[in-house]
Amino acid sequence: RVKMSAEEILVCAVELGKNFCLYFDELECDALCKEKILHRVLRNVNSQLLVVRPDLNVAAFEDVTDQEMQSGKGIHFSIHCYKTTTPLAGMPVAFSVQVEDKSYYMCCERECGKMIVRFKEGEVPKEIPGESNIIFFKKTFTSCCSKAFKFEYSMERGMFLAFEEEGYLRKLTLKKLSKDEVDETMKISL
User: Fold this and answer.
1) What whole-number distance in Å separates Cα of residue 34 and Cα of residue 28?
2) Domain residue spans in the chain?
3) pTM (two decimals)
4) Domain 34-189 belongs to what topology?
5) Which GO terms describe its cellular component (predicted)?
6) What is the pLDDT at residue 26?
7) Rounded CA separation 29/26 (Å)
8) What is the DSSP letter of 147?
């Protein structure tokens, strides 16, 4: 603290690192650090469960039998919750799922000018130093519906996880949402 006239000003210590980069001591970094993991199934507005089938490169909401539910293949998700220094955006989360003896994580990639939701083999990292194509912001679906959520893609604001009908499938996709619109295809219950 430095006293100038009658006003106190808080001064942060700085240090120059490699290549003369400026570092501030005692400030929180913007990296995301894993805080907890929730184990859930993901349901759409029709009470269908999200099922991941990596062999077919498909993730879709389906009606699931009790027997399929017990086997749990591609149905039981780990929701990795991260600490953040910007809580107003929503809780940062990443999704992973076990299929047989392999773990897959959800990510988004641009393909032919369109954002595609994919599941890739691998583990979700404990720390994410900056932006990442695996992070979604968990937000309450509506103020009167606190048990359902929508998940905004962290790298493209206004794009949310949703489902779209494609033949007999209700495929997991990213969908643009207008400011005041309520879109039931984005409603996901845990």
Assistant:
1) 15
2) 34-189
3) 0.80
4) Trefoil (Acidic Fibroblast Growth Factor, subunit A) (2.80.10)
5) cytoplasm; extracellular space
6) 46
7) 9
8) E
